[in-house]
């Protein structure tokens, strides 16, 4: 949930939107507000979604940095000429970072407000604070944690079984760590194995290039149309150029940071990053444990890289996942916590329920 309930006098369209979007503008640029105004001029000012309630909004690609809802109460209700909904006294403004979250939020709002009892509950709120508390309790903007099983943690003699078991699971991707001893002292997958996995699975693939020359892998990976490719900040001198190359082959460009690597030196890359991966254990030391102090780094990444997906990877258990979710992580790479369990579906449901 975003800003609190805001009493507001009657204002002209642009001024009214600017007033109700003030919290969004403090946290980022004006482009989301511009999107609302643009859609208003094109389609009309609001969607009337329930008696007394209207929803102004813009498409998610128009500058939303966070999933939020703002609430504006009108001291003087306004008639829109719709007998079923007039007069309007409450405005809900939804901000979603992507199309999936946008659709899910609108569906949740519409389903809940379809009940006359729900609308009456809002109308009977004694004050704005109570109204906002009721809306906050609905948790409309909560987004399920997106999971990416790391195939390197599965039994290499049973990859096909693992892939079959995950075939219908609700995953963000299958995650493949690429290690060739040049950056991490280990070897994982070669191109033949990667191609076989790509042909076998229905899920997108995300690649974590734990190598010293990630650009060498891009032509090979381009052929299998990866969803994400992460390079390590510590392994390259020209991350900007390589991130551009990743986007050029149609993948989302990501930067991975080891636990000791600070965030701020890489803020200049913010506009080139689709995703930022925070290592929450030391990279590929077998059996390395989750570093709880990385939760603060995750939280800071949401502040300094608001438009980038926030990933966490390394030693993630259910307990660690709860801490990371509270810190603002959106995507979790899970390995041993999944592949050492007997029932993947049960384990995945425990993680997504966070």
From TrEMBL:
Any one GO cellular component localisation term in the record: plasma membrane
Taxonomic superkingdom: Bacteria
GO molecular function: metal ion binding; racemase and epimerase activity, acting on carbohydrates and derivatives
Membrane topology: Single-pass membrane protein
Primary location recorded for the protein, binned into one broad class: membrane
GO terms (BP aspect): carbohydrate metabolic process
Domain called PTS EIIA type-2: residue spans: 1-138
PROSITE patterns: PTS_EIIA_TYPE_2, RIBUL_P_3_EPIMER_1, RIBUL_P_3_EPIMER_2
Keywords: Isomerase, Metal-binding
Keyword Metal-binding: yes
Record has Metal-binding as a keyword: yes
Cofactor(s) listed in the protein's UniProt record: a divalent metal cation
Cellular compartments annotated: Cell membrane
PANTHER family: RIBULOSE-5-PHOSPHATE-3-EPIMERASE
Protein name as catalogued: Putative epimerase LsrE
Protein source organism: Salmonella enterica subsp. enterica serovar Sanjuan
């Amino acid at each position: 949930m975003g800003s609190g309930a805001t009493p507001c006098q009657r204002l002209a369209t642009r001024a009214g939107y600017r007033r109700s979007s003030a919290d969004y503008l403090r946290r980022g640029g004006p482009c989301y507000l511009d999107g609302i105004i643009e859609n208003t001029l094109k389609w009309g000012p609001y969607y009337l979604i329930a008696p007394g309630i209207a929803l102004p909004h813009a498409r998610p690609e128009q500058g939303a940095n966070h999933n939020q809802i703002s609430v504006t109460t009108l001291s003087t209700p306004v008639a829109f000429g719709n007998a079923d909904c007039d007069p309007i006294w409450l405005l809900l403004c939804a901000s979603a970072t992507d199309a999936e979250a946008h659709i899910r939020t609108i569906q949740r709002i519409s389903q809940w407000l379809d009940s006359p009892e729900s609308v009456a509950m809002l109308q009977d709120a004694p004050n704005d604070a109570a109204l906002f508390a009721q809306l906050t309790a609905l948790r409309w903007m909560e987004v399920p944690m997106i999971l990416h099983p790391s195939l390197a943690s599965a039994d290499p003699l049973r990859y096909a079984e693992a892939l079959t078991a995950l075939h219908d699971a609700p995953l963000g991707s299958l995650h493949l760590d690429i290690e060739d001893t040049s950056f991490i002292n280990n070897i994982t997958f070669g191109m033949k194995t990667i191609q076989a996995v790509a042909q076998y699975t229905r899920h997108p693939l995300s690649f974590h290039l734990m190598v010293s020359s990630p650009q060498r892998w891009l032509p090979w990976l381009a052929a299998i149309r990866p969803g994400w490719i992460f390079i390590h900040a510590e392994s390259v001198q020209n991350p900007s150029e390589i991130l551009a190359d990743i986007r050029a082959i149609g993948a989302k460009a990501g930067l991975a940071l080891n636990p000791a690597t600070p965030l701020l030196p890489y803020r200049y890359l913010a506009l080139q990053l689709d995703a930022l991966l925070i290592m929450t254990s030391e990279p590929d030391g077998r059996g390395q444990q989750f570093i709880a102090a990385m939760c603060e780094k995750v939280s800071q990444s949401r502040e300094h890289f608001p438009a980038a997906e926030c990933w966490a990877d390394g030693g993630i258990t259910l307990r660690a996942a709860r801490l990371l979710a509270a810190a603002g992580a959106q995507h979790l790479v899970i390995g041993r916590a999944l592949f050492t369990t007997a029932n993947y579906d049960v384990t995945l449901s425990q993680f997504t329920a966070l």
